[in-house]
Amino acid sequence: MNKRLRLLLGTELPIAALLLFALFPWAWMVLASVRPEADLTQTPIRLLPSALTLANHIELLGRTSFADNMRDSLVVAAGAVLLGLALALPAAYAFSRFRFPGRSALLVQFLAINMFPVVMLILPLFILFRQFGLLDTYLALIAGHATFTLPFAIWLLTSYVDGIPRDLDSAAAIDGATRWQQMRLVILPLTLPGLVAVGIYLFISSWNEYLFALMLAGRHVRTVTVALQSFIGENQIQWALLMAGGTLVALPAVVLFLLVQRQLVGGLTGGAVKG
Amino acid sequence: MTPWLLLGPALLLTVVIVLVPALQTLWMSLHGVVLFRPRLQPFVGVDNYTAALTDPVFWQSLLTSLIWVVCAVGLQFLLGLGAALLLNRRFRWRGLARALIVVPWALPSVIIGLIWTWMLDFNLGLINALGLRLGLLADPIPFLSQPRTALAAVILAVVWQGFPFFAVTLLAGLQAIPPEQYEAAALDGAGSWSQFWHVTLPGLAAVMATALLLRMIWVANSLDLILVMTGGGPGTATQTLPLHAFLTAWSGGNYGQGSALAVILTVLLLGVVVTYLARRTA
Asked: Does A68 touch chain B (CB under 8 A)?
């Protein structure tokens, strides 16, 4: 009994407090999204909901352009996933299976990308995309998002490919498989779980991104993060719509993140634990 | 088939999206590039840098950046370490707790900014409402619109966003420490504090160092949360260096000086990273 009490006070209670801190602000938003707008805008505020309603969500999806914004975000994120994986997998294969001059320098170079402040790049990118008429297009955001998530994607996929025994490559080679066939028939199926994890990571990163989406697009292609920010209107903040939008946007990010949490953490710490 | 063929596409995109723009920023930082004068871009040497460095706002932004990075990363780290140590213990709903702790980390910065802007709101915010109701506050506090509290408020939001990152990475580090080390220490009569000091901390050192470096770079560069919550204000109270560069270029229309500020930021960060790597390999 004493032991149980110690566990409760020393471990479970502090954890519960931490979880409350981690989850409450999010839960408070989700709850707000299903309360009548008057609950949110009266002073002093009501702590408990006067009623539960889907009116905010319905108004958001029916009367604003938010459904279009969600479609834009979806297209951009899906594009970033496809482009990112198409670039990262061959690169990871090269890093894993070849030893060539400049290999380690290149690996470091890819990591160094993450060090560049986005402010340093956004202005020339704006000018570049404008020159090619790419401003405010899906392609601009897809290319931007895919590039900035490339380092982590390559890093993670390289460790996946490293985990595939080279004997399998050699066995396939002896059977007469070309490099291309080895990649397609041996490596690709075995890295599939890794591809799914990295793909989900790319999706969340793109879905959540704000600054690129704001600066390089925003009118014809308007992602959800930019749209949400615009609800903080010139005259009055529409809290009820904001909360509904925030809830809807956060949902896929949270669910997907929970799915791949383990793989991502493994990838983040893999290098550090080994080194 | 050479590795270069496989690396080619990834390299090409990186060159176009990162390297060329970075060089262009460097070029602009040495030229007089102003929004209202697009045709004339004379070479001005280091004028943009001199102008940036003699502007008192720069030094204030640098100080704000320093406070922002040290407080945000430090608090995220401490909270994350505490969470990792607790989550490494054995209790029945451990799996659930480990999964749910990451929720803030998964959310977009924009939503985090909105949630906290709302929670800290003068009229409609929960924190003021609770403070008043519990008698902790005599009057509501305009957290985000007074200079004294605005920086603390955005730091609170970024700590909330980032501590799960430390919690899960440090937890993974804890799990990689062989249990035999604890058994050996216990046999030698080490108490729990001594075990923490002599087994846990050294065992975590590599993960801690990497996580701190990654997070520091990220926090130092990030500006979306501040942009959403305060836009750098009130006045320049929450204006960090990247935000100062951003606002100088976009709101001020002074691309040259904004570029110079971006270059200064990059060099400062590079200095920190190189120092860190040099000390680690030494």
From this structure: no
A36 upstream amide cis, omega within 30 of 0: no
Choose the closest CB to B7 out of A86, A91, A208: A91
Per domain, the residue ranges of chain B are 55-239
Report the candidate in A197, A243, A203 with the shortest Cα–Cα distance to residue A40.
A243
Sign of CA dihedral B237, B242, B243, B247: positive
- Which chain B positions have a beta carbon within 8 Å of A119's beta carbon? 221, 223, 242, 245-246, 249, 258, 262, 265
The Cα–Cα gap between B236 and B217 comes to 22
State yes or no: cis peptide before B142, omega within 30 of 0. no
Q: Report percent pLDDT > 90 for chain A.
A: 52
Asked if the Cβ–Cβ distance from B13 to A261 is below 8 Å, we say no
- Number of alpha carbons in the 13 Å side-chain half-sphere of residue A111: 15
* ipTM of model: 0.91
Distance CA B77, CA B69 (A): 12
Nearest chain A residue to B93 by CA: give it: A12
pLDDT, residue A233, reads 61
Cα angle for residues A65, A66, A69 (degrees, 5° grid): 95
Q: Which residues of A181-208 are buried (b: 16+ CB within 10 A; e: fewer)?
A: ebbeebbeeebeebbebbbbbbbbbbbb
* Rounded (5°) CA angle A266-A271-A273: 75
Chain A residues lying within 8 Å of B91, measured CB to CB: 7, 11-12, 15
CATH 1.10.3720.10 fits A65-274, yes or no: yes
More confident: A112 or A179: A179
pLDDT along chain B (282 residues), means of 10: 88 91 93 82 90 95 97 97 94 91 94 94 92 92 93 97 94 91 90 90 90 92 92 92 94 91 93 85 72
Buried b vs exposed e over A74-104: b needs ≥16 C-beta within 10 Å? bebbbbbbebbbebbbbbbbbbbbeeeeeee
Burial track B157-193 (b if 16+ CB lie within 10 A, e otherwise): bbbbbbbbbbbbbbbbbbeebeeeebeebeeeebeee
SS3 content of chain A, % helix, strand, coil (to 5): 80, 0, 20
Task: For B138-156, give one letter per residue: b (16+ CB within 10 A) or e.
Answer: eebbbbbbeeebbbebbbb
What CATH architecture applies to the domain B55-239? Orthogonal Bundle (1.10)
Best residue in B34, B103, B159, B255 for a mutation probing chain A (most A CBs within 10 Å): B103
- Chain B CB contacts of A118 below 8 Å: 221, 223, 242
Q: Are B194 and A260 in contact (CB under 8 A)?
A: no
Question: Residue B114: which of A21, A90, A246 has the nearest Cβ?
Answer: A246
Record the tokens describing residue B176, joined without a space.
């990689």
